[in-house]
Amino acid sequence: MFGLLKAGGKGKIINLSQVGHLVQRRLLDLGITEGSEICVKCVMPFGGPVMIESCGQCVGIRRREAVQIEVVKL
Amino acid sequence: MEIALIGNPNTGKTSLFNNLTGSYEYVGNWSGVTVEKKVGIFKNNIGQLIDLPGVYTLNPLSKDEGVVTSFFLNESVDRLLNILDASQLERNLHLTLQLLEFEKPALIGLNMIDVANKRGIQIDAGKLSEVLGVPVVPVVARSGKGCDKLVDAISTKSTQPVKKNLVYYGKEVEEAIVTLTGMLHGKTDLSVRFLAIQYFEGNEYVRDYLHSIDDQQKLNPVKAKLESKLQKQYEVKSLANYIYQKRKEVIEGIVAEVARKSNSVIPLSEKIDSIVTNRFLGMPIFLLLMYFMFMLTFDWLGTPLSDLLDGFLTGPITVGFEKVLTAIHASDFIHALIIEGLVAGVGGVLVFVPQIFILFFFISLLEDSGYMARVALVMDRIMESVGLNGKAFIPMMIGFGCNVPGIMAARTIETPRERLLTILLTPLMSCSARLPVYALFVGAFFAGNKALVVLSLYVLGIIVALTLAKIFSTTILKSETSLFVIELPPYRLPQFQSLWRSTWDKGKGFVRKAGTFIFAGSVFIWLLSYAGPSGLKVDMDHSYLAAIGNAIAPIFDPIGFGTWQASASLITGFLAKEAIISTMNIIYFVPNDASLQGLMADYYTPLAAYSFMVFILLYIPCLATVATIYKETNSKKWTAFSMIYAFAIAYVLSLIIYQGGKLFGLV
Amino acid sequence: MIANIVIGAAIFGYATWALVRFINKSKKGKCAACDLKNSCSSNCGIPPKIQ
């Protein structure tokens, strides 16, 4: 559902379980988990990665994984 | 006393390490600058400080994080110094809670308070100390503010944590911990509570450690039972997740108590980000930056400075040596050794110091500003299509300075396959030692567009690396798993002083090498060119060096430089790439003012010169790089592979360029 | 004459020493050549499974 978000879009993560195990772990390390509020900062062209912000820190993840994150719009 | 420095990535541990020990280790603004353990002595001699790679948790995913966990399990340490990034307190405290469970004396350095304040976060250090039960000292690691207080606290205060068991993990987990405590009693010196919790979390290093001291048939059921119990009772996804949530609850309580948040302004960082990681501008901006860097190195600033230095070396310095040699009635042999061997060989390399320093200055700027992680983000799409991830671009960028630290930096890549691929391909990045060769040849043959020709070589290195990545990842290194999550640190305005330190630190290796290896190499190369089967002072074409070069020269005939001179310099280049240029200076030694550049035209055509540069760019990595590849891969097979494929690809490309160029009527 | 021998011996002596040291250091790679090797435990290496 994340794919619907455009740069500037804000949302709250409700489900991360679709995302690959390793990526889930890394996001958890960075404090991004279910319940975290995130904001899409920019989306790279040609299916490239997206840059998201949560609690003041920016993280880059791949489009494929971003799409698997379930969020609700804020 | 041994004190270990530990904290999240990019929180300023190494900056603090440098400040406390007065040493100068490699710092930068991205996650994963430090990939190995470093040891230093405190300025006031109170003990040893150990700098460790940054970790988010003690449960490792990548190799550099594993360094920390094995350090905890296998080495004794007296105190832990935990660095917290005040602007990311919640995330940092996850590690802190794990460290406190380790039950060793600990204290906390609260770093980046300035960044936190800018974000509108105020932290009460006194209260934090009270809640955690360990001393907390606010510091600014970059400037060194607060470091003296930190040293005081380390050497005077009793740092044994006063509070035990900050986190209550719930009845079930605590019971399982007690069970494990009973089983492990007397078998380890480490905190059993710590081991148990890490074991439950699925920490592989701790699991292996426990299996080595106790029967795994007994240990496994405890964990399995606990997990199924929790899953039934609380519907949690996994034991690890349950433990994480418990910690999180405690942390939320702590943060609510010690931190106050107010509204903040939009940081400058985000404004810059919207430009450099712009959808369409990201890549062009990166290429433009590279172009600017090469213009400055080869055209605007570097070359004029090099020419000045060259004039100084061939002029006053040579004249000075001549005078001294005449005054002491030196023999012909000593005279030739010093003027034709040392001044030509060592001087020929030293001439390029200005250009090397400019290049290193730019690399330091990239590292220090926070742009490095952005480049990784911008490059990820391309890297993904060849079976790598954007993070692999960081070792490659570092490889532009020197391939050895570049290969070491590949440790931050999580998946073993991508890491191996990065290690194999980093040597294709044109390191600074290859730069003098380009500088010499573009000066002689492509004076009109020096920067552009050199840029084409750097880009060629990248393109070849990406192409090979695609080939390797679809043939010999197949695997589906790939991971790309990268932390993008806020931009920092680089301080001039730290930039200079960083540039000097990289550049001094080059200067030192000129005084040691290049000196030695020059002496022996000169001797080989001076002596021959028929005695000393032979014509150079009949020297031992010519004989050696001639033996392999025919191989290089099809690619445009089948001369013994070129072959001889390629052989010395395996020991260190700088040696190529010093060998050429000795071989093509020209007395008086005639320059080497002018002489080159007699031996190379422009096309052969380009083919030669391409060959230098790609052929067998230098000895130090090969040794590092061996250390990092721990495999003779892959090390041999890295040498063979590099030689093959260099030969094939040079052949295509030279023969293809001739077909098109180029000379 | 003596000056010649002294200079020649000094240059060749230093050159031999520097060359041997450099090659030994390079051959060992970054870890073993490091000044901290005795206290450094970060053993380098990729897990054997990928080999």
Fill in the keyword field for this structure.
heterotrimer; A: 74 residues; alpha+beta; SH3 type barrels; five-stranded antiparallel sheet; 5 strands; globular; C: 51 residues; mainly alpha; 0% strand; disordered C terminus
Question: How are the elements arranged and paired?
Answer:
The complex is a heterotrimer of chains A (74), B (667) and C (51).
Chain A: E1 10-15, H1 21-29, E2 37-43, E3 50-54, E4 57-61, H2 63-68, E5 70-73
Chain B: E1 2-7, H1 13-21, E2 38-41, E3 48-51, H2 63-74, E4 79-85, H3 89-101, E5 106-111, H4 113-118, E6 121-123, H5 125-132, E7 136-138, H6 147-156, H7 171-184, H8 192-201, H9 204-213, H10 216-234, H11 239-258, E8 259-261, H12 268-276, H13 282-300, H14 302-327, H15 332-350, H16 353-369, H17 371-385, H18 393-399, H19 403-409, H20 416-425, H21 435-445, H22 450-474, E9 485-488, H23 496-530, H24 544-556, H25 564-575, H26 578-587, H27 596-603, H28 606-618, H29 623-633, H30 636-663
Parallel strand pairs in B: 1-3, 1-4, 4-5, 5-7
Antiparallel strand pairs in B: 2-3, 6-8
Helix pairs in contact in B: 3-11, 7-8, 7-10, 13-16, 13-22, 14-15, 14-16, 15-23, 15-26, 16-23, 18-19, 19-29, 21-27, 21-28, 22-28, 23-26, 24-25, 25-26, 28-30, 29-30
Chain C: H1 2-33
What does this structure look like?
The complex is a heterotrimer of chains A (74), B (667) and C (51). Chain A has 2 helices and 5 strands. Chain A is of the alpha+beta class. Chain A has a single domain, classed as SH3 type barrels (Roll), CATH 2.30.30. The radius of gyration of chain A is 11 Å and the shape is globular. The relative contact order of chain B is 0.08. The mean pLDDT of chain B is 87. Chain B is mainly alpha-helical. With 51 residues, chain C is mainly alpha-helical. Chain C has one helix at residues 2-33. Chain C is rod-shaped. The N and C termini of chain C lie far apart (60 Å). Classes of the chains: A alpha+beta (74), B mainly alpha (667), C mainly alpha (51). Chains in contact: A-B, B-C. The interface between B and C is large, with 51 and 37 residues.
